[in-house]
Amino acid sequence: MPMPTYPELQLFIAGEWRRADGQPVLNPADESVLATVPHATRADLDAALTAAQDGLRVWRQTSPAKRADIILKAARLARERIEEMAIAMTLEQGKPIAQSRLEILRGCDIIEWDAAEGRRVYGRVIPSEPGMRHTVLRQPIGVVAAFSPWNFPMSSPARKVAGALSAGCAIILKASEETPAGAVQLVRAFQDAGVPPGVLNLVFGTPSEISEYLIPQPAVRLVTFTGSIPVGKRLAALAGQHMKPAIMELGGHAPVIVCDDVDPAASAATSVIGKTRNAGQVCVSPTRFYVQEAIYEKFTDAFAAKAREVKVGDGLDPANQMGPLANYRRIETMEAMVADATAKGARLLAGGSRIGNRGYFYPLTVLADVPDDARAMREEPFGPLALINAVGSLDEAIEKANALPYGLAAYAFTRSARNVDRLAEGIEAGNLSINHFVASIAETPFGGVKESGYGREGGTEGLECYTVAKNVSHLVM
């Protein structure tokens, strides 16, 4: 593996990189300072708005085929640079290096699919009486203000950039200040691929200040945000005040229903792998396990045994299966949730306390028989915490799965076609995966219901969110 290196962090506005003062970026494995992430000034934001409007005029008049060529080249460059990108991502976010590589490949898949789909943003002709023609055009919505989170430094920005650019829009991306290198390296790939100046702009800064300034600007026509539900509600309200459409991909609290017709040990082993991904810091992370009584003890014992075997350490060591949490806030949350649940009667079967006192390491933690009023059962843990409870029937499991106001992802294990049909009809979630833990791929729409948000990223549905439908009625004279 190459020597660990971390890139210089700059703003990208109007096709040029800009330096600025900012805040330190920490390595969660040892709490050392990696770099300083620049904060955009009001003048920088104004420059980005002007650049995006100028870029939009050029980009929307560029043919879909030409746009696709540039976007696909950016994906090729990212694939070629996978090692340097993966190392930087692991340094800033903590995930194991293998997971960083997979995130980059997944981001490239998304970029490539959107680039191809951008050539198929079709309109339609509606039949009418002789002499009248109704034509529906799909046109770029305009300048997009995009906000991406810290847990997926490359693939989350890639979703927003690829969707906007493939639809013919310009974008101002406000990426995470805690994990900025993924966005910087992504934008550099697009720059090197030949994206015209202003089409893609990258800023960092105090999130609330940037969102409160950008969203009301008349030039901004769409807001897209991935992050927590409380922040999403504030941004959605701000967008609503200014009549701006929004894509809100917010938090979840994913249930996993384990039916009694499956192998409990095999299902538990698969579940542990799913739970360790990104140390559970995933909005679709499997968290609430509802296991039918006949296999409950076997599943729980197997899950706890596998959890205790998970090797936790620096993500740059390929032997480690789970890296540190991204920041100290996650340690505090895990400790508080475990203490609350055990005080209310939950059984602690694995993990439960911080590893060491340098770096944000926390083990995969398993709680069984967790009461419904425990904080962890009501709030998204966003960490390596698995909650396992017994249920008497599939109907009870579905009822409990739907009891929370979230509905992003859900999972189930069953061999029964009847169970699959019941789950597909009954589960309230934007994404349901059965017998595996992949919530979405580039070709499929991704998003939530209830408080987990609205709008979609990915798939044909996602690209349509970056367009407006214009009806043209023509009476032949």
Write down the overall mean pLDDT: 97
**Contiguous runs where pLDDT drops below 50 for at least 5 residues:** none
What's the CATH architecture of the largest domain?
3-Layer(aba) Sandwich
Distance N terminus to C terminus?
70 Å
Give a quick account of the main beta sheet: strands, pairing sense, barrel closure.
7 strands, mixed
Overall helicity = 25-40%
Plain-language structure description:
Helix content is 39%, strand content 22%. It has 477 residues and is an alpha/beta fold. The protein has a 7-stranded mixed beta sheet, sandwiched between helices. A 6-stranded mixed beta sheet has the order 9-8-7-10-11-21, with helices on both faces. It is globular.
Keywords:
single chain, 477 residues, alpha/beta, Aldehyde Dehydrogenase, Chain A, domain 1, Aldehyde Dehydrogenase, Chain A, domain 2, 2 domains, 7-stranded mixed sheet, 15 helices, 39% helix, 22% strand
